[in-house]
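Deviations from the work plan: none for this task. Representative record:
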Amino acid sequence: MRNLEEFKILSQCNETRARATQFITQHGSVETPVFMPVGTLGTVKSVSPEELKAAGVQIILGNTYHLYLRPGLDVIELFSGLHKFMGWEGPILTDSGGFQIFSLAKLVTLSDEGVIFRSHIDGSKHLLSPEKTIDLQNRIGADLIMCLDNCLPYPISKDKAEEGVAMTTSWARRCKSVWEIQKKNALFGIVQGGAFNDLRKRSVDELAEIGFSGYAVGGLSVGEPKECLLDAAGYTLEQLPKDSPKYVMGVGAPEDILELVSLGADMFDCVLPTRNARNGSLFTSFGTINICNAAFKQDIQPLDPECNCYTCKNYSRAYLRHLYMAKELLAYRLNTIHNISYYSSLMKRIREAISNGVFLSFKKNFYDLRKCDNGL
Amino acid sequence: MRNLEEFKILSQCNETRARATQFITQHGSVETPVFMPVGTLGTVKSVSPEELKAAGVQIILGNTYHLYLRPGLDVIELFSGLHKFMGWEGPILTDSGGFQIFSLAKLVTLSDEGVIFRSHIDGSKHLLSPEKTIDLQNRIGADLIMCLDNCLPYPISKDKAEEGVAMTTSWARRCKSVWEIQKKNALFGIVQGGAFNDLRKRSVDELAEIGFSGYAVGGLSVGEPKECLLDAAGYTLEQLPKDSPKYVMGVGAPEDILELVSLGADMFDCVLPTRNARNGSLFTSFGTINICNAAFKQDIQPLDPECNCYTCKNYSRAYLRHLYMAKELLAYRLNTIHNISYYSSLMKRIREAISNGVFLSFKKNFYDLRKCDNGL
C-alpha cells in the first residue's frame, strides 16, 4: 500500500457508516474491518505464528519502543526485519513508540527535536524524534508505520490540546518528509485533539493536507468515559478522507469494535483479547466467562460450542479450568488461541454482514446473544 | 502389555548389556530404550500433545499424587481417563504417588494400611495405600502403572533399608492382588534396597516371585553420589528378569542414560529436559548451552544445526535468547520442544546403534562431541 490507489472500498452499509474495504501490503492483502493482535516484543504472547494464522489473524502489531530497547534494531536487522526474526510472514503494523514513551518511560522531556526519555528497563537515555521513529520502523521492516504523535491524557485543557495538535501536525510533516526518501511501506497520520471537535477537525485537515496512506484516531482509551470515546471517534472518523483506511488505536472490547465499525472504523488493535486470555477471561458467543468459575470443574463441553478454534475443537472447559487453576503454561496459550480466534471470527462475520447488507441485524443479534453474559 | 509375552527383545549389544526391546500397550507400541517426558498435571509443561508427537515422544508419564489432588479423579473419570482429558493418544505411565508423598506432602504417617499424608496444596488429609494407588491409576486409565513402594532417603542404615524392602514387598503383593481383579494395564514392581546389594537382590527376588509385567529400579536420584547410583542400578538391572522391561526411575542426564542403557536399562523418566528448558539450559549435539549467554545476542544460527525439531527449523539463537531474556511465554515452549526432541532423537539413535551393532562406538562418539561443552 505504498500508494493510496491500492485501497478499495468493497461494500458500504446503508444504515450506518460501516464499510468493508481491502488494502494490499508487501506481505499480503488485508480485509477490513480488521483486528490486529498485539505482538509487543516480536511475539504475540504465548502463541506461534502458525497458531496466529490458524486463528484467522491477518495482520499483527509490533511496538517500536519495546523492540528498540529489546532485542534492539541491530539484532532485528540481521534478519532483514521483524518478519524473519519472529517467523511471521503476514503484514505487520508498528506504532511510533510515542504512546509507550508517555506511558512507560521515565523523565520524558519534550523539545523541538523530539522526546528525550529514559528506558523503563535500565534507565538509559534515548531520543525519539519524528525522523527517528520512521527510521526505526523502516528498519523493523513493518508494512504499515505510524507518525510520531503527541498523545495527551484525559481530561486536558483546550490550550494544551491545541498545542498537542500543533506539535502532532508539525511532527507528521517531518515524518512524511523522511518517509518520502524510501517509501518502504505505508505511512499513517494520527489525529489528536482530545474531546474538542474543532481541534479534531483541524488535526484531520492538517494531516489530510500533508497526505498519508491512512489515518488513525489517536488519543483515545486514555481514561475518558465511553460516550466521550465514541463521540470523539465518531466525529473524527466522519471527517477523515473516505479513500483511505481509518484506524482507531488501542480500542478493543467486542462491543466497542461493533460501535466503531458502525461509525466507519476499518482497523483496530488492543491488548484485551490476549491479556484477558492470560487472566482467564474468555470471549464467547454467549458472553464473557471466567474460566476459574467452579461451574466449569466438571464441564466436559468445549469453551464455546460455536467456535472452531484449536482450543474449542480439542479441549473441554474442565481441562482449561484445571490448567488455569494449576497455573500451567499451556493454559495461557490455549486461552489466547481461543480469544484471538474469537476476535478473528467476529471481524470476519462483521465483514460478511456488511457485504451481505445485513450489518444492522447482525449487530442486534450480537448484542442479544452477548446479553446472557451472566448465564455462567 | 497385560501379558509378559507381548514384550520382545529386538537386539542385544555384544560388548555391553544394552538392548533394544519393544512392548505393546493399549495405546500403541513402545520401542526401548525410551525416555518418558514428565506430564505431572495432565500436561507436559508448555507443550501440546501434537508437539509431543512431532518431537518423537512415544510415551509420557503422569503423576498420580498430583492428579489425585488436582483436578481430582472425579474430573478425569468424566473423560474416561487422562488420555481424553488431556488429548494425548499415546501410552501413559503413572507413578504410584509414593515418591511425591515422601518428598512433597506434609505430616506423613506410615501404618500397616498405607501412608497418611496432608496435601501440599491445602493441607487436607488423605490416605494412600497399595490398594488405593492401583484403584487411582486404573481410574486415570494409565497403560503402565506402578506399585506403591517405600522410597527411602540417602544415606540410610541397613536396618532401615531392610525394613523398607520388607514393606515394599508386602505392598507390592497387595498391589498385585488388587490389580489382578481387573488387569486393566501392565503393573510394574519397584526394587528398593538402598546401596546394599544383598538387599537389592532380596528385593528383586521377592518381586520376581510375585511376578510383574515389568520392573523398576527405585530409590535412586535421592542424593547419592553418581558412582553409587550407577553401582546400585547396574547391580539391580543385572539381577532383574531379562524377559521384562527394566525401568530406572527419575534418572535422566543424557550421559546417565547412556551409562544405564549400557547396564541394561530400557525405560527412563526425568524432569531434566523440561525443567532445564524452562531455565534456559538447552541440550545440543555439541554440549549443553545456556540461552542467556550474550554470545547468542546476534547469532542467526539455529540452536543446534544438527537438530530437526520445530524450534531449530524455524527460529534462531538470537530470537530464542530474546524471548528468554524478555520472559516471553513462547520461550518456555520453544525451549521445551527442543529439549524433548533432543531426548527423543538421542533415544532413537541409541536404539539404532544397538540394532546395528555399533552401540559402543556410538557411545564414544557421543562423549567426544559433548566434550566441547564449554565451546559456547
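The CA atoms of residues 106 and 142 of chain B lie 26 Å apart.
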